[in-house]
Amino acid sequence: MDPIRGRVIKGVKWTTLGTMGVAACSLLRLSILARFLDKTDFGLMALTLFILGIINLFMDMGLTSAIFHKQDISKNEYSSLYWINLIFGVLVFGIIFFVSPFIASFYNEPLLAQLIIIMALAVLAAALGGQFKTIEHKKLNFKIIAVVELTSAIFSLGIAIVLAIYGYGIYALIFSALFQYAAPNLFFWLRGVFLNPVRFHFKLSEAVPFLKIGIYEVGSQFVNYFNRDLDIIVIGKLFSTELLGGYSLAKQLVFKPAQIINPIITKIANPLLAKFQTDIYLLKKNYLKLINIISSLNFFVYLGIIIFAPIIVTILYGSKYDSIVGLVRILSLYMYLRSLGNPIGSLVIATGRTNLSFYWNLFSMAIMAIFVFLGSLVSIQAVAWAVTIGFLFLFVPNWWFLVKKMTGASLKEFLLAIIPKLYLDEIKQMIFKK
């Protein structure tokens, strides 16, 4: 067997185990805390995680994507990248500390400032260990990544349950989430220090080629993040925190399947597609295969959620959250459409065309802002429909501007790749492969 193929198959198995385990722990934590906390707490958590998400985008300045793209990196280059990333992480934490009161004031939620600062501690952990984790990922060492992330998720679940039982309220959410974010990075930092320590070496000129790729990647992810969570921003400002909490619970529920399925595929695809960056035929072939797998898996999952939404909501959150069933159904359609665009990140990393992704995300954010604004004039349900229709509107332009330019795939090839199909033979082969 081809050595790369063998490592990919093992990677899929371990990534599947780790991702499903982490998602199960996260969903169980959400389900348990829904019995202890109210919608306002989940609304505050949604705002806190939104801010933390923005912070994380800037954390490595897009260097993760640059490291995946460049195939031969020297020890000195790794060291220069590490120190610039660490210094930047400390600066980011300092900025968060001083601006968090202004963010809390904007949303008229005084407690939000404290919650943001607590969660921002994860920034320091990411600055210490993020690059070491990326190196393990690039080497296709998926087993250790899966084990560490799953272990952290299990402990995070335990922390959430204990704190909730003892009446810590929203802090049960905050500290459990902080542990799950920070623990893996701290582990890979300690592992890296002993097994592959960085040198006390820094040369800006060595980091510049990576930063040129990374700056567009950061800009692209930043704009895309606002694009993805425009609904949270608008609802948090124009509607009550309680309504935001209900919307956030619905959105988290429909995000879970994609958070299980897509990372399993893309974690393998990021380093794999990068190996085909000089062969446009193989790049197109593997990208279209990637799209078809993701479409097939997500289609049947989200169809099931739409059909059984009332039962799923009652089981996970309890009968007091029956009002979000409609949102769950609408956002399931949105999330299926969005999942089809997720693999574009792997393609961008493979080709190094981060500039295209940045310009596209600027355009799509402008379009989505119009849809979300119009929806917000009506109701929360209208906002959910707005993001869904907006994403559908951008579907063909997304192919023309990104997929066609990077792979040469025609619209017909792209549309055929999206049609779901069963992979029973492939699944059996992977499960029973010795």
Protein architecture, described:
The protein is mainly alpha-helical. It has one domain. Helix content is 84%, strand content 0%. The longest helix has 38 residues. It is globular. The protein starts with a helix and ends with a helix. The mean pLDDT is 82.
Provide the fold topology.
Elements: H1 3-33, H2 39-59, H3 63-69, H4 75-106, H5 111-119, H6 121-138, H7 142-165, H8 170-195, H9 204-228, H10 230-238, H11 241-274, H12 280-317, H13 325-341, H14 344-351, H15 354-376, H16 380-393, H17 395-407, H18 411-418, H19 424-432
Task: Give the structure's gist in a few sentences.
By secondary structure, this protein is mainly alpha-helical. Helix content is 84%, strand content 0%. The protein has helices at 3-33, 39-59, 63-69, 75-106, 111-119, 121-138, 142-165, 170-195, 204-228, 230-238, 241-274, 280-317, 325-341, 344-351, 354-376, 380-393, 395-407, 411-418, 424-432.
Mean pLDDT: 82
Helix-strand makeup class = mainly alpha
Tell me roughly what share of residues is in helical segments: over 70%
- Tell me the strand percentage band: under 5%
DSSP summary: helix tally: 19
User: Low-confidence parts, pLDDT < 50 over ≥5 residues?
Assistant: none
General form: globular
Query: Could you tell me the radius of gyration in angstroms?
Result: 21 Å
Spatial gap, N to C terminus: 12 Å
Number of domains: 1
Largest sheet: none
Care to count the β-strands?
0
The ordered H/E elements are: HHHHHHHHHHHHHHHHHHH
